[in-house]
Amino acid sequence: MESDFFVILHFMSKNKLKKFDEMATFSNVYQYPYAVLESQGGCPLKGIWRSKVFGNDNPLVLELGCGRGEYAVALAQLFKDKNFIGIDIKGARMWSGAKEALETGLTNVAFLRTNIELLPSFFAADEVSEIWLTFPDPQMKKVNKRLTGARFVSLYRKFLADGGLIHLKTDSNFLFTYTRELIKANSFNELVCTDDLYNSSFTDPILSIQTCYEQQWRERGLNIKYLCFKLNNNDPIVEPEIEIEPDPYRSYNRRRRQETKQSRTKL
Predict the structure, then answer these.
(1) pTM of this prediction?
(2) Residue 160 forms beta bridges with which residues?
(3) Sorting pLDDT into bands at 50, 70 and 90, what band is 264?
(4) SS3 letters for the chain?
(5) Each residue of 100-127: b (16+ CB within 10 Å) or e?
(6) What's the pLDDT tens digit per position in 139-169?
(7) Active-site positions?
């Protein structure tokens, strides 16, 4: 039994390495070691992504934490008049979307492997028109890691154009509530807000895009929440002063917290 476990681990490790090697040959994947960013004062493509990578001047849209890249690819297929970059640090996941884009000849989507904290080294002021946050970890205990928290929104400001949009899709009531409170606390302009996207009056082509995980969550009865807002002032961003009830399930494995506690008690 133990030997089977190590065989599986070995196979997974080899599969990851194979994907990393293959991604190094992909023309739509960009990876820059930190040493390069430091020595060159940032990414060589900073400020010129649209002209050098996409060959046009269309709006640039980022999906942060893109995972397997299926949402970035679907957005690119829907909106041919925009350029999309899926961003994640986990390259083995990103491989799927990058490979699909190449095989289908999709030229308005690319992928960048890096940490979100480093994005100001990759994008110049006003270079990005929209940001998508699709089902990020709500980080209920770590506000500084929340992708809609003051720390990260302040970071987005460094490259998001005036009037640029931030989109959030989430199954987490905690993150949805928190983000709404942050919007209110900072007087941002909330454009769209629904706590049940697929049973609302909202009509938009994005309704046709559902990731594999999103479909599973809907099947389990979880409402999908959607927010779209823009930053409309330059004041320091403050955190909302409010207590929010945690989600009753864990972020990724979807197990009920109560069930987990009961099982631990039995042990």
Answers:
(1) 0.87
(2) 128
(3) very low
(4) CHHHHHHHHHHHHHHHHHHHHHHCCCCCEEECCHHHHHHHCCCCCCCCHHHHHHCCCCCEEEEECCCCCHHHHHHHHHCCCCEEEEEECCHHHHHHHHHHHHHCCCCCEEEEECCHHHHHHCCCCCCEEEEEEECCCCCCCCHHHCCCCHHHHHHHCCCEEEEEEEEEEECCHHHHHHHHHHHHHCCCEEEEEECCHHHCCCCCHHHHCCCHHHHHHHHCCCCCEEEEEECCCCCCCCCCCCCCCCCCECCCCCCEHHHHHHHHHHC
(5) bbbeeebbbbbbbbbebebbbbbbbeeb
(6) 999 999 999 999 999 999 999 999 999 999 9
(7) 137
Token pair, residue 218, equals 């809907």
CA 228 – CA 226 distance, rounded (Å) = 7
Distances (CA, A) of 205 to 59, 75, 76, 194: 17, 9, 12, 16
Could you tell me the two tokens for 229? 């807002």
Single-letter code of the amino acid located at 88: D
Long-range contacts: 186-191, Cβ < 8 Å, 24+?
186/231, 186/233, 186/235, 186/237, 186/238, 187/232, 187/233, 188/229, 188/230, 188/231, 188/232, 188/233, 189/229, 189/230, 189/231, 189/232, 190/227, 190/228, 190/229, 191/165, 191/228, 191/229, 191/230
